[in-house]
Amino acid sequence: MKSALAILSLLPVGSFASWAGNINYLSPSVHHPSLGISIRRVAKRSVPGTEYTPQQLNFTHGVASGDPYATSVILWTRAAPMMDSVNDDGGVTGLSPMYWHGPEVTSTAPVCVEWKVAKDKAMKQVVSNGKAYTSSDIDFTVKVEATHLKPFTYYYYQFNICNSNVKSPIGRTKTAPRPGDHVSRARFAVYSCAFYAYGYFNAYGHSARKDSVDYVLHLGDYIYEYARYGNTGEGPDIGRVPQPEHELFTLYDYRLRYATHRTDEDLLLSHRTFPWIPTWDDHEVADNSWRDGYTKLNNTENSFIEDDPVSVDQRKMNAVRAYFEWMPIRQVDMDDNLRIWRSTAFGDLVDLVMLDTRHYDRSITTLYYNDDYIGSIADEPNRSQMGGRQENWFFRQLSESQKRGASWRLVGSQTVFSYLNNTKPTPSDFNYVFRYDSWQGYTASRNRTLHHMYSNNIQNNIVLAGDSHASWVSDLVWLNSTDPDPRPEDHPDYDPRTGRGAIGVEFASTAVTSPGTGGWNPKLEVTQERSDFAVKINPSLQWTEQHHRGYLELDITHEKVKTTYFGIPSVMSRNRDEFVMGEFEVRKDENRVHRPAGGYKVNSGSAKKYLKV
Ligand SMILES: *[C@@H]1O[C@H](CO)[C@@H](O)[C@H](O)[C@H]1NC(C)=O
Ligand SMILES: *[C@@H]1O[C@H](CO)[C@@H](O)[C@H](O)[C@H]1NC(C)=O
Ligand SMILES: *[C@@H]1O[C@H](CO)[C@@H](O)[C@H](O)[C@H]1NC(C)=O
Ligand SMILES: *[C@@H]1O[C@H](CO)[C@@H](O)[C@H](O)[C@H]1NC(C)=O
Ligand SMILES: *[C@@H]1O[C@H](CO)[C@@H](O)[C@H](O)[C@H]1NC(C)=O
Ligand SMILES: *[C@@H]1O[C@H](CO)[C@@H](O)[C@H](O)[C@H]1NC(C)=O
């Protein structure tokens, strides 16, 4: 956090230090300090007599930690006035305290929060602590960096309102190993696509209750910008109404949507149990967003008058600001707050590269009315899914990872990377998964990535993807032929039977709650038929499951990556049910899904038939 210090140094020494401790006040640009919140002005509002009493304040949305480094981690909470419980409606009518983010503040005074990090759950052996202020300017969020920690170590943390006994829940976190450290095992849970109205976030709670991973990776669609049920207009009536009850445009809208999500008990549990390393997908801003727009925006005068009360840039700024306020992440480039792409080393075991294939510098994508046009230009070499700057950085990360000898390269991608064609020969509604909104609409970007891997012999690559609301396991391969009949002679460079010619594996995860290819209440015959069809016509696809919501867990050692896909039987209630949909292995240097022998297991969905034991 060199840049944070740079800003600090502009302030008088001492008095302002704890004000600047809250990263959310900082300008997203070192060269434009005026874009930050003026900490001096906030501090001036701290007038005795107008301040909130500790009893008027609470930690309304839990605690969270994220972006672990070897010696530091980001800690998050929200310390807000409980407006309505101060009144006498008990939060029954009007805005409940959980949702209060509005401008009707009775006092503009900032709130003082203390935090501490301890080695033990009882919070006795404190190793790091500090003080930070927050205020309505940043939605009462608190984000601090706890430093001077030991690598790959569990810590507990807690916030309290200054000089009081009003305390947050205790969170647990874990630092990353140092890049050079020998690490024998690391485990990750992988999530994407959590639509609030469509179900309970049981998936988030499962890994926490099992305590089965070290870190959580989120590939985006943590929230959706839609009013309630998205553009389908229908869904279950289970009382999950996301706030506000209209589409998100303003900063206030986006903040309130994050606040709604952080009332789900299982999401809260995951945040306080594991450090998260998230990236965003399209819906953190708007459906099918790209560099200059999103679905609903036709860039006609009408789009602004009828649909969008704000400009593309303003909406993106609102969305991005709320994201940084609410998510426990670092801004790795202080002069580019649209840059969320970043990497983390986990000892000699794993390099994790988190991409932004959505907002950063993405060429135009499918916006429904232009789908055929995008299909026709998908192969144009001048299209890019992430922009030249990010792409060069990405390739450099892969090369450096190989050079330093990390056993595995994990790549977090929002959208599905591998060739996937579910187009039935006869017209049908099957086109859902043949989407030019994925890497399939940017084949030049995909080819350049594969070219970089093949030509530099960069092996042991694991691509992770979300966005599609279904589960997919594919050999990672540059397909020279996509002939649906997988005879080896059709694929001179790739044999789907053995996986020869592949250079890694893609594990694409289903949604936490968002409806899949069969709608929010799918029929098994329909989803099964789709899975069967998909494995039949896609050469590199080894398994798919299109029925269940769920998540996956990666258990990584130097010898292998073991991947378990968990399915959730029902998200219509908060419950603890789950089952193993499929279990897969990637052995070191095999660069493909390990074929039947050795624990290959599938309980749901459809696998290539020659892989069945
Ligand atoms: C403070 O928040 C916690 C967790 O959200 C809640 O359990 C508790 O009842 C709240 N305290 C008050 C005084 O409202
Ligand atoms: C956007 O433009 C397309 C093509 O002209 C049209 O079909 C669609 O209705 C427009 N959408 C909006 C929201 O204006
Ligand atoms: C991209 O290249 C194609 C030719 O392959 C050309 O027709 C098109 O105008 C180019 N697009 C841009 C945005 O440069
Ligand atoms: C997708 O598969 C269908 C056959 O099912 C085929 O006609 C079509 O050409 C394929 N599309 C692409 C882009 O590979
Ligand atoms: C990407 O590679 C495939 C397979 O070799 C090829 O058919 C396609 O034309 C390539 N596309 C681009 C844009 O390079
Ligand atoms: C076929 O795939 C290989 C990688 O296996 C790649 O190097 C080659 O350029 C591809 N050929 C074409 C024509 O796309």
Automatic annotation (TrEMBL):
Keyword Cell division attached: no
Keywords on record: Signal
Domain PhoD-like phosphatase metallophosphatase: 188-564
Gene3D superfamilies from the UniProt entry: PhoD-like phosphatase, Purple acid phosphatase-like, N-terminal
One Pfam family named in its UniProt record: PhoD_N
PANTHER family xref list: PHOSPHATASE, PUTATIVE (AFU_ORTHOLOGUE AFUA_6G08710)-RELATED
Protein name (database record): Alkaline phosphatase
Organism: Orbilia blumenaviensis
Lineage: Eukaryota, Fungi, Dikarya, Ascomycota, Pezizomycotina
